[in-house]
Amino acid sequence: MQLTEKQKQAANHKNGPCLVLAVPGAGKTTMLLERIKMLENQIDPSHILSLTFSKTQALDMKNRFESEGDIKSNFMTIHAFCYLIIRNYYKKTHRKLKILESDNEYNKYNLIQQIYYDINGKVMSSEDLKNFFIEIGYMKNSMADISYLKKSQVKNIEKIYKAYEDFKKQKSYIDFDDMQIIALIILNQNYKLLRLVKNKYKYIQLDEGQDTSLLQFKIIEKIVHPENNLMVVADDDQSIYSFRAAEPDYLLNFKSIYPNAKLITMNENHRSQANIVKAANNFIIQNQKRYTKNLFTSKNATSKVYKKYAKDSKDSFSYILKNIDPNKTNAIVFRNNISALNLISFLMEKDIDFTINNPSIDFFDSKILSDMVNIINFSKDFYNVELFSEIYYMVNTYLSKEEIEKLDLKAINYTVFDYLHEYISDEKAYGLLRKEKEFKNLRTMNLDKQISYIYNKMGYRDYIKMFSSKYYEVVINKDLYVESMINFTKDLKDLNEFYKKIEEFERILNKNNESNIILSTIHKSKGLEYDNVFIIDLVKGEFPLIYDYKNRENCLEEERRMFYVAMTRARDNLHLITLKYRNSHKVEPSDFYTYV
To answer: What is the CATH number of domain 284-354+513-595?
Structure first.
């Protein structure tokens, strides 16, 4: 295979530390495989270890190498590598290794839900469950202490975490998130085992270095020292996993950690036509915390970068259908999972086949939808005091907690409104009559109109604004989510029809369609390429999504990296799409859309 000069330079590097900065489409996998061949000709192949974060990436590299001959060196994920270290240690110390995720007796998700219930006295939401593991994983990977959890939205997370850790200790379990930190502790405390690992793996190359956490880098540091025969292949401009504690700053400080490190920049993009490469390069150079690299390509400029200012979501999807090439791969990519719901509803309505990169997304397990179902159910049963107690503050009733507590929680012959009118002030009584009328109006509507009415007329939109937080994507993108729900429930009479449609929706989602129309979040599209790429929902407030205003600049730089990743998935045509209206509310184009 013919390599470029930069690829050759990297592939021929043997001893000492080396950081290879590989831009999108630079042919880094080809280079890494050529380097392994070079090393295998000079040293025992069993001493070579290729690491990556993703199992898919590790398998892909292994399969590509196998297709060219016998495989002798080692390919694995960092987690698998840590597992080998722990297994070896447990074997030598005659202990039984018990992995919680591999045990049939306990389910860690059920365990956390039970602990949450015992501590907080209520059922844990699926969002809180997901966020619990995200935040624990982040804390461990970033090597932060438990005080990091203080800012969590999960109630009593520190107590829950401590109870979970106590359970594992008592039962002698470790879980997936423990593996890396335990591996590092073992390497720090057991010199014999460390020496064994060092002697076994003398040459390490790490792919996708920008996705690697501080903890993972520390493990690698421990093994390669003092020879430091380490090659890291990365692109700081594609670091988009801060929520998983990926540490791009480590790459920026690489020369400080390894003073004699070689730095090689593979900055030729072999994937995209010239106008896409130029637009992507001009965009990413806005970031300050990065290595300077001028992205270029030897490909011709075959088309411009297209921009569409659509009236609304439906108009944007119609534009996409007109520009899809049936003979090529077409990816519709988006910043937020929720964008897929609108899109899927539209494609289902048109009976168009598609493939989704993440079919396991649960669009219907959210606080917003759960609240709306409760509000709709109460509108049909004014005697349900318990339900009213759960929703009264969501729809601008202006009632106090004390006034609600006066309601008789036993069965009553009066409606909630009749009962309240006996003791609330005249000032509040007028507002309550109006609210009662709104609930009665709700009964007469189809489901899509009910959702719109609750959100736009009953005050729910004002209420949900208070709940924006880093991980509650549905809440941050409330207008997009509600618009998606309105479109999904169009022509449905009631919740029973809604639940039936969800079943059909999930059946279609889990069908393995072979389609040239691919739906994907930007995160899931990373490392992939398509002939035509459509980036949708480029709306201010949705993309870039700044969830941490104290850390605004770092957030913005990562959002730019995300947009850069999306742009550089395209080979031939790139379409950027914004909207004028979202859920009947006027919106502005994203600054990213405007900049290009």
So the answer is: 3.40.50.300
